[in-house]
Design brief:
- There is one protein chain.
- Helix content is 33%, strand content 17%.
- It is of the alpha+beta class.
- The protein folds into three domains: 11-80, no CATH class; 90-511, Glycosyltransferase, CATH 1.50.10; 516-564, no CATH class.
- Helix 3 (150-159) packs parallel to helix 13 and helix 12 packs across helix 13 (492-506).
Length: 569
């Protein structure tokens, strides 16, 4: 969220030093600076300019380096491009990553271009942990959040698993290193909790709470367990997963000891720091959780798409890992807890006379009765009872919820609906990708195809890039999506949305310990045939062809099996 940030007024000075311009800033006791070095340039305090004359058929080149620092005395020497391929170390690592990314060819060239744009955007959002430069993670989004967000980075890397599983692993390892160990009301850190955001560079003071890391999120902790379960299925060495299991168990301990404040099985949130986030689920704007009449819900709040939902799925993810490790007792215990929570969820969140789920429970355990997109995430997680699925699907695709470009975050007949708001009537691509995945899970193929096609058509109006969100005006009102001026672009969730949409419609699943791959394509005819090469699987690479919805797979390990159908979940 872009609100509730501490406002800083920096005192800026500029100094020309030979072939460099130093820009320094001071706020209270915080000092930051950047040095722009440009040999041969004309440098003033206001500009760096090159004055050159290039003859016909001639050429000219120069090197410009921009080096941020905390204090000049501690600044490391900037890298220099030495001939050769002319790449910086980070550029070279990105090229190595590109070589591992699957190549996609589709009959629909527009969708193919959108997928390639997603790859490029994921590359631009890759950042490194200075303490582990070989470990790459994905930033939440530019320009506001070029840093690691627990919830955003985890979900984005989960959505990108079929393309680059190493991104999820790097994110898990980086978050595990910073898992909560103490109770700190200022940063909202608690033992076992996964952080909301951390600044890995000189912008550390910009995090909420005024520290380098802020932990005010209830989504990130169960998501950590969920994504670790997914990573274990996609194929990493057993010792790599084993090293992260204690962190998963500590995350589940946090949910039990700190997250479930009243012992009812649901996880509630209430900020500990008055400058922190009022809402700590994914709709984290101050007005993101409200009743049907527009009244704000009061904390502690148990919200949809918070641990109250993800906890059963986190239990199942941990159960799968227990099965893989040969601990059948733990696996059965966790599976049983997941089933109990699913039952309790359907009893307490379902609103029978409305035909949809409450968006939350408030401090008095009243159903917060707004109709919101969050219930689509219940489908994705498999939490919806079979008898309720048709009503949920019908509501999601109703004129009050489907704009023509995607599902609104809040139904248009709700009191707080505003198509230009951040969370109360806008359209978020990643939100819709998850909803489409959930609809497919329960067999609502046409509805999932409609959402997918609408989003991919929306991308055509922004050169193949889906932004963080766009305004929720109806497609009947405007012939193209209306941009939201504060949206991050590129943004991690949005960049992975086309990937998720396509792999969901491929109905593509794998499980390394079972040695199996499953696929049952439901691609619309307008997408054309699909040819994927260099797709990662376990320690190898495979080729996938889908022609007239019939899939073939080449390159599977000899011990693996392939089946056309739905995988184990």
């Amino acid at each position: 969220m872009k609100e509730a940030r501490i406002q800083r007024r920096w005192v800026e000075t500029r100094l020309v030093e030979g072939d460099a311009l130093s820009i320094r800033a001071l706020w209270q006791d915080v000092k930051k600076d950047v040095v722009v070095r440009a040999p041969g340039a004309h440098i003033s305090t206001g500009a760096v300019a090159f004055r050159v004359s290039v003859p016909p058929h001639g050429q000219w080149s120069s090197i410009l380096t921009v080096m941020p620092g905390i204090e000049a005395a501690h600044r490391k020497a900037a890298f220099v491009h030495f001939g050769g391929d002319g790449l910086s170390p980070s550029d070279r690592r990105w090229q190595e990553c590109v070589a591992k990314i699957p190549m996609v060819q589709m009959g629909n060239r527009s969708i193919e271009r959108t997928l390639r744009r997603s790859y490029d955007d994921l590359g631009s959002l890759r950042i490194e942990d200075p303490e582990h430069p070989d470990r790459v993670v994905v930033a939440a989004g530019a320009p506001w959040f070029m840093t690691l967000f627990g919830r955003d980075s985890l979900l984005a890397s989960e959505m990108a698993l079929p393309v680059d599983p190493s991104l999820a692993l790097g994110t898990l390892q980086t978050l595990a290193d910073r898992q909560g160990t103490v109770v700190d009301p200022m940063s909202e850190e608690e033992p076992g909790k996964i952080l909301h955001e951390v600044r890995l560079d000189v912008s550390s003071g910009l995090s909420l709470g005024g520290k380098s890391a802020y932990y005010g999120s209830v989504d990130a902790t169960p998501l950590f367990v969920l994504v670790l379960g997914s990573v274990s299925r996609w194929g990493f060495a057993k010792e790599t997963i084993t090293a992260l299991l204690p962190h998963a168990d500590r995350a589940l301990d946090w949910i039990r000891d700190y997250g479930d404040k009243d012992g009812d099985g649901f996880v509630e949130y209430q900020r500990l720091n008055p400058s922190g986030l009022r809402n700590q689920s994914w709709k984290d704007s101050w007005d993101g959780i409200n009743f049907a009449d527009g009244t704000l819900a009061e904390p502690p709040i148990a919200a949809l798409r918070s641990p109250s939902l993800r906890l059963p799925h986190a239990y199942m993810a941990r159960a799968w890992m227990a099965y893989d490790a040969g601990d059948a007792g733990l696996a059965e215990n966790l599976s049983g807890r997941a089933a109990q929570l699913k039952k309790r969820f359907n009893e307490q969140f379902w609103i029978p006379d409305r035909g949809y789920y409450a968006v939350a429970l408030d401090k008095n355990k009243r159903q917060v009765d707004a109709c919101a997109s969050n219930m689509g995430h219940c489908l994705w997680l498999g939490l919806v009872d079979e008898d309720k699925v048709p009503q949920v699907a019908e509501r999601l695709m109703s004129p009050e919820m489907f704009s023509g470009w995607g599902v609104w975050t809040l139904a248009s007949d709700m009191g707080a609906y505003n198509p230009a708001s951040y969370h109360n009537g806008s359209v978020w691509p990643h939100d819709n990708a998850i909803i489409a995945d959930g609809l497919l899970r329960y067999g609502f193929t046409a509805e999932a195809q409609r959402i997918s096609t609408a989003l991919l058509e929306a991308a055509e109006f922004s050169n193949g890039r889906l932004p963080e969100l766009f305004c929720g005006f109806s497609r009947d009102q405007f012939p193209e999506p209306v941009p939201c001026p504060t949206a991050c672009s590129p943004q991690a969730w949005a960049a992975t949305t086309p990937i998720r949409l396509l792999t969901s419609l491929m109905r593509y699943d794998t499980h390394i310990s079972l040695g199996g791959l499953w696929m049952d394509p439901a691609l619309p005819n307008s997408y054309g045939d699909l040819h994927v090469t260099n797709a990662p699987l376990a320690e190898g690479r495979i080729t996938i062809d889908i022609t007239n919805s019939v899939p073939t797979v080449q390159g599977l390990p000899k011990t693996w099996s392939y089946a056309r159908g739905i995988g184990p979940g």
